[in-house]
Design a protein that fits this description.
The chain is of the alpha/beta class. Helix content is 37%, strand content 22%. Strands 1, 2, 3, 4, 5 and 6 form a six-stranded parallel beta sheet that branches. Strand 3, helix 3 and strand 4 form a beta-alpha-beta unit. Helix 1 packs across helix 5. The chain starts with a strand and ends with a helix. The model has no long low-confidence stretch (mean pLDDT 96).
């Protein structure tokens, strides 16, 4: 099972979550690789059985728009039938960005392996454990 964990992080919170997703996927036997969103593109998506995407909430509860959103937009045609998972941190709000993102991916035909994981600010032990479980879900 080849898994990509693709993320954007401004403060390091989503990066810490991505590392926990990577650890979870590897502990479940996946051949997992970590990528920042500027190092991943649509042409690479076909090489992976599963992909975890991580992005914090930005501005008015939206995805980061300079690097992450353009990469995701380019990958949209590759998501139909693809097993994916979503994660990210936020500083305020109630997680609307993640609900919208999940709905968008579902409409594209992506198959979510588990519910998205979100956390407020830096991930605590509970959020790290949830990210590890998310990583493991990519291998099931």
């Amino acid at each position: 099972m080849k898994t990509a964990i693709v993320y954007w992080s401004g403060t390091g919170n989503t990066e810490a979550m991505a590392q926990a997703v990577l650890n979870g996927a590897r502990s479940a036997g996946a051949e997992a690789e970590l990528f920042t969103s500027d190092a991943f593109n649509a042409a690479m998506a076909d090489a992976y059985d599963t992909i975890a995407f991580g992005c914090p909430s930005m501005g008015a509860e939206q995805l980061e728009e300079d690097e992450f959103e353009p990469m995701l937009e380019a990958c949209k045609s590759k998501l139909a039938g693809k097993r994916i998972a979503l994660f990210g941190s936020y500083g305020w709000g109630d997680g609307e960005w993640m609900r919208s993102w999940k709905e968008q991916c579902t409409e594209l035909g992506a198959v979510l392996t588990t519910e998205p994981v979100i956390c407020n600010e830096a991930p605590d032990d509970e959020a790290i454990a949830a990210c590890e479980a998310l990583g493991k879900s990519l291998t099931e």
